[in-house]
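Running co-folding for flavin-adenine dinucleotide.
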Amino acid sequence: MTSSDVYDIAIIGMGPVGAAAANLAGQAGLRTLVIERGDAPYRQPRAIVFDAEVMRIFASVGLAECIAAVTRPLGGAVYLGADLQPIRKFRAPPPVDPLAWHPSNLFYQPQLEALLRDGLDRFAYVDVRTGHDVVTVEDGAIRMRGPDGDEATAHARFILACDGASSTVRKALAIPLDDIDLSNGAVEFIAGSHRWGVNYRPTPFRKGHEAKFTSSALQPLPDIDADRGKFDIRSWTMEPGDCLVFHAMIVHGAPGNDTPGNRRRGLSLRYTGDDARYDPRPGTFQFPHKPDLQPGAPMTCDLFPRVWPRR
Ligand SMILES: Cc1cc2nc3c(=O)[nH]c(=O)nc-3n(C[C@H](O)[C@H](O)[C@H](O)COP(=O)(O)OP(=O)(O)OC[C@H]3O[C@@H](n4cnc5c(N)ncnc54)[C@H](O)[C@@H]3O)c2cc1C
């Protein structure tokens, strides 16, 4: 593959966010690929208002005038409940704010999206592929399925995931989506236990998995739950995007998620130092994929790439 086969940026999804981003990329002279599953803007309006900051973005790509022509300032609004009684009132903001554009602009989403898409015709180096569904994204390679079911792969130095609330890209990259607390399986830690100097055997807490590591010669974990007050147990609620970093030897565990409908997904990564060795002894935790390593070998291999060489 030569560098000319690689786009500067690929934008996945051409809703309002992707279409605006594609105009910005085109304006910046970037070789851009836009991939959109639909053939035309989605016909149902959903978003209805944007503010002056957004209008400034449209102005920066030369589209403010045509977009302003199809918007009108929001003159206040009353939201009614199912019983037609007001549930919320918004007062009309001043007509023009210091940013020169109206602070609240009402729009019809399919029309706005069409104008943003039309704007892309100005840029010869922005390729738009509608009717293409991105199936997965891996190492800068974007695999997509075209209208006839034919598959194609494109490469880009940067990928912008603008594929909405059920994002394929977010799923492909296993980016966490769920709020986590003790009700759906937040991990609990015993503060300071990494200094106890004991290698405990892995202990499944999920019902039905108890027998998994019985062949281990390592010491069984004490029954922590029988006397929780004896230990300094800590846990944290987490939101999508949060990250917990902890020492591998700290005693930690989660009982699983017993809350129906409340998912708990996350991405777990293991980092080792240069001195770690592969030690696949019986009764220890096994990796889902077998590394191409001999026992006693340093960890660096395809499955455990070296991320930060010290020397
Ligand atoms: C029922 C409903 C009501 C709403 N009401 C309001 C409201 O009153 N006010 C408000 O401000 N906002 C509202 N919204 C939110 C508004 O729709 C979104 O904020 C806005 O559309 C988000 O824009 P976007 O470009 O990020 O994503 P989207 O508009 O969702 O666009 C994503 C694009 O990516 C494409 N795509 C997705 N997956 C792939 C893939 N794998 N391959 C290729 N293309 C893909 C989709 O076809 C779509 O065109 C509402 C949303 C819904 C669903």
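Result summary
The pocket of flavin-adenine dinucleotide is lined by residues 12-18, 35-38, 42, 46-49, 133-134, 162-165, 168 (CB under 6 Å).
Helices lie at 16-27, 52-60, 64-68, 109-119, 168-172.
Job closed.
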